[in-house]
User: What shape does this take?
Amino acid sequence: MSSNNFNLREQDYQRIGAILGRMHRELRAELVLLISRSGQTIAMSGSAGSIDCTSLASLAAANLAATDGLANIVGEREFSVLLHQGRQRSLFISDLLKKFSLVLVFDATASLGLVRYKCKRTATLLEDVIRSFQQRMEKAGSMPDYPDFSDDELEELLGRIDP
Amino acid sequence: MTFINYVAREINCKIVYYGPGLGGKTTNLQYVYQITSPENKGKLISLATETERTLFFDFLPIDLGQIRGFRTRFHLYTVPGQVFYDSSRKLILKGVDGVVFVADSQEERLDANLESLANLAQNLKEQGFDISCIPYVLQLNKRDLPSAMPVESLQQQLLVKGEPVFEAVAPRGVGVLDTLKAVARQVLVELRKSA
Assistant: This one.
């Protein structure tokens, strides 16, 4: 399991935040999220407001995964981009290296061409960051400030499951 | 894929409830949702058919609080148990950290349990996991039904590797939290080992 773990450090977070923030400003998007393909929110820019980001990330990951399945059925390697158009808000989901996804919530009146263009550019920038921290994680091995908890601390935490 | 965010100091883990159709996977999540306080849970999302059978998955995020300054969150998922939704099951296993197999204790469902267990092992393998290595718990559900098989017989048939086994009656919550605790414990111990 450990080899699949993903550890986000300050420097990665700053770089990702800057990229998402720029996209958020340029498109005047409501919300921009970087999520893992397992459905966890990694970073975001914008105000979530009434949007439940945890559920959004989970459903967006599932949506993209289901679309991959559809692509395989019709003989495509992937459908790397998903667009859902609504009356008020639209949703754009783009794959990043099969491990992450970019999710954008934006005003439905925005230019789709511009959204696609900016998303493509942002995806390229994010992929560079992801590649660099993946390489660093492979080299670094264990993390120096890993949450190394005791058995008692673990049992105390698990005790909170049982109210 | 356990996601540790050192900046926000968060640990995020994914647990999947697997098993045959109508075995009680969704009921497990519904019980956890019912008893968890509002500040420690998100929305329970169920993507179900019009007859309330799981179509894609159920999803419940829960927050256990802090350990060593890290906020610990578990994302609980169920898979659709019906045989023909295999593609969906594979997708849900993506990035899984721990699995609960919810077996139906009724004698007439033994074949369905065995088929689902074999399917789990195969689908985990396709995702690059080995069932004998991943955090894993067996729950024997529906212990209150008259046709429930003896625990020993079920263990003989379903035990994979000496994993923790819990008897459950999910609608009443019997065994539900013990099951969740056991799999969460294994996931966090694995995480600690990888340090």
